[in-house]
Write a structure and sequence with these properties.
By secondary structure, the protein is of the alpha/beta class. The chain folds into two domains: 2-145 and 331-345, Rossmann fold (3-Layer(aba) Sandwich); 150-326, Rossmann fold (3-Layer(aba) Sandwich), CATH 3.40.50.2000. The chain is 46% helix and 14% strand. The protein contains 15 helices and twelve strands. It has helices spanning 2-10, 26-32, 51-74, 87-96, 112-117, 149-153, 158-165, 184-200, 213-219, 237-243, 253-262, 278-287, 300-312, 315-326, 333-345, and strands at residues 17-21, 36-40, 79-81, 101-105, 123-126, 140-142, 173-177, 203-207, 228-231, 246-249, 266-268, 293-294. The strands form three sheets. Strands 9-8-7-10-11-12 form a six-stranded parallel beta sheet, sandwiched between helices. The protein is globular, with a radius of gyration of 21 Å.
Length: 346
């Protein structure tokens, strides 16, 4: 949507059509943003034998046929695939119809959808170096991932951010992110850490996620102090980043890109429940450049309390991580991807 917004801003007459997977978030979020979307009956493969997996080949075939019809009716000048479930049938249909295809790979470990069409793509925009092991080198353009404009544009200072969250601006501040729905392991690790952090007198901005908010509030009731803020969702993420000295987060591609742009020292706890363990690869790409720390999901409950507190008490380490992660930022990714699309049309 960020790329679409950029194109509409610079080319108001552009016609943009989204294609997504029925039942997924995009089917509500895209229309809310003012764009038309068509849903395909497609889903990912499950890791175990299920009826859905048995039906998968039929869904792929029907989605490909539906995509051919979409290409015929909409007559696009270019098709951009961002690696979602619907990406493969639509980009394959576009290639069949000789429509130029551009791909955007968000992770450091390429997904199946993009790898399947890579040889037929005209341009492949990537967020990490070293992607030649997945894609033809001559097609790769290093753009980074689109980041929400509020993260790029907002210049809230620490004092303003502390006032917004009603916390002491002089105390070290830890921001916990588990995604909009939440992450069970991260929440359990925070619960285990609360007595240690309360005794240390630090601020904790804790985003539990929608699925865990009420449960975590109840279970944390014995360890509440003025610097602890338990939130279902952080509405002002720019202010949360401004307040934080250290972030604890999953390692989804867009979250990693935001943290780079925000320049925040981070301990990543990659989710083990994602395809091809791509979050570990994302986090490892930063850890290898000494730009972040990482804890395995299986170690988080036992080790998060101590590791976070140790990092907060080590100003040199925090400054080092902040400097190195900021150096990896690509705040113009939205513009650069959009201009690659426009260049193909021209």
């Amino acid at each position: 949507m960020a790329v679409a917004d950029y194109i509409k801003e610079h080319y108001p007459d552009a016609e943009i059509l989204f294609v997504g997977a029925r039942g997924k978030m995009e089917m509500t979020r895209v229309p809310q943003a003012g764009y038309r979307i068509i849903g395909l009956n497609i889903a990912g493969l499950q890791r175990r034998l299920t009826l859905e997996n048995l039906l998968f080949p039929l869904k792929v075939i029907s989605s490909f046929l539906a995509s051919l019809h979409i290409i015929k009716e909409f007559k696009p000048d270019v098709v951009a695939g961002f690696g979602g479930y619907a990406s493969s049938p639509v980009t394959l249909a576009a290639a069949r119809k000789k429509v130029p295809v551009i791909l955007q790979e968000q992770n450091s470990f390429a997904g199946l959808a993009n790898k399947a069409i890579a040889k037929r793509a005209a341009v492949i925009c990537v967020a990490y170096e070293g992607m030649e092991k997945f894609f033809p080198a001559e097609k790769i353009v290093l753009t980074g991932n689109p980041v929400r404009s509020e993260i790029v544009d907002e210049q809230a200072d620490r004092q303003q951010a502390a006032e917004y969250f009603s916390i002491d601006s002089q105390a070290p501040t830890l921001l916990i992110l588990g995604g909009s729905l939440g992450a069970r392991t991260i929440n359990e690790a925070v619960l285990a850490a609360l007595p240690t952090w309360q005794e240390a007198g630090i601020n904790v901005l804790w985003q539990t996620g929608k699925l865990y908010f009420e449960e975590m509030k109840q279970r944390a009731a014995d360890h509440i102090w003025p610097g602890l803020k338990i939130m279902e969702f952080v509405m002002q993420m720019g202010k949360a980043y401004a307040a934080a000295d250290l972030v604890v987060s999953r390692a989804g591609a867009l979250t990693v890109s935001e943290l780079c742009v925000a320049g925040k020292a981070t301990i990543f706890i990659p989710s083990p429940n994602v395809a091809e363990d791509h979050q570990t690869h994302n986090a490892r790409a930063l850890v290898d450049k000494d730009a972040a720390g990482m804890l395995a999901d299986s170690e988080a409950v036992e080790q998060l309390a101590g590791q976070a507190l140790q990092a907060l008490n080590d100003s040199d380490r925090l400054a080092h991580w902040q400097h190195n992660i900021k150096a990896l930022a690509r705040p113009n990714a939205t513009r650069d991807i959009a201009e690659q699309i426009i260049g193909l049309i021209e």
